[in-house]
Write a structure and sequence with these properties.
Strand content: 5-15%
Number of domains: 2
Distance between the termini: 18 Å
Order of helices and strands: HHEHEHEEHEEEEEHEEHHEEHHEH
Helix content: 25-40%
Number of helices: 11
CATH topology of the largest domain: Aspartate Aminotransferase, domain 2
Largest sheet: 7 strands, mixed
Strand order of the largest sheet: 1-9-8-5-4-2-3
Shape: globular
CATH class of the largest domain: Alpha Beta
Number of strands: 14
Length: 379
Amino acid sequence: MKALESLNIQMVDLRGQYEKIASEIDRNVAQVIQSGAFINGPAVNVFANNLAKYLDVKHVVPCANGTDALQIALMALNFVPGDEVITTPFTFVSTAEVIALLGLKPVFVDINPDTFNIDVNQLEEHISAKTKCIIPVHLFGQGCNMDLLLDICSQYKLALIEDNAQAIGSVYNFDNGTNKKLGAIGDIGTTSFYPSKNLGAYGDGGAVFTDSDKIVAKIKSIANHGQSKKYTYENIGINSRLDSLQAAILQVKLKYLDVFNQQRQMVAEWYNTNLINIEAIVTPALNKKSTHVYHQYCIKVGNRRDELRQCLAQNNIPSMIYYPKPLHLQQAYATYGYKAGDFKVAENTANKILALPMHTELTHAELSYICDVIVNFFK
């Protein structure tokens, strides 16, 4: 094991990744600057078309960020205030935030204790006459049970929006033997290009996906102030654009996405091999229907999670808690009447979960050091 002073372990190492592809990034950025086409320039269309090919989806509409992507998706489906949208309480706030902002009602469903994704088997008991949509979050890098979700949505005539901000590149294997990339399965898919994402920009960005020609027309209009053509406003819209500079950067990174995801899988395998025999730790479970691209590598720790985190910090190893308090217990969502104990799995998970460093630049020396510290803590 290397001496501690020679290691500089990062939770996310964007600089190290950039250095590997710097010449391509710099060339693309320079081309945009020289062109002067900073808004809706050719780089945006090139990236959108290539991402559509990668996902095998008809339409990709880039936008300003992942939160906007979710809001645009909901706005495109013509819901009215009071309509209910089912989602998970164990996710980043954006998923529920946009539901509430539009005057819709977020209805939470507890999570699967193994994958941390929404427990699809509990969905039907939360469906009412006002339910219009389900938004599953493919959390930490792997998919929900999309076979069952599609069946439920078909049976109850519900829209399906995939929040795929954390699992771009993951492939879902259907019961019938076919497969499709996550985000391209529901009526609409969304993602974020926040810098730390698997496909991350060097600033903010997001995108909306769909196979529907009708829906994409409204998505494009909403993202551009509600315009159908210049100065003609058919919809209430917002201003949400992906900068040409970010599109140029993402175009390079898209070429390497599968390689980057494979590197994350190798890191996860290293953790799994070295931590699986620690009785106090539960390593990430895999949904056999979905590949896992490990946006985060999250373990569950018995009653010593906070002690372990302090030990890691003392040894210059960063860690994070995703997420420390489920959304149904946050003050902003108190108006919906939820209370402690309503979603026991999510609440229990919030008290035990811990994310370890996960990125493409982790070295064997760094991984060995992290695992050794954890193993020694539990001896």
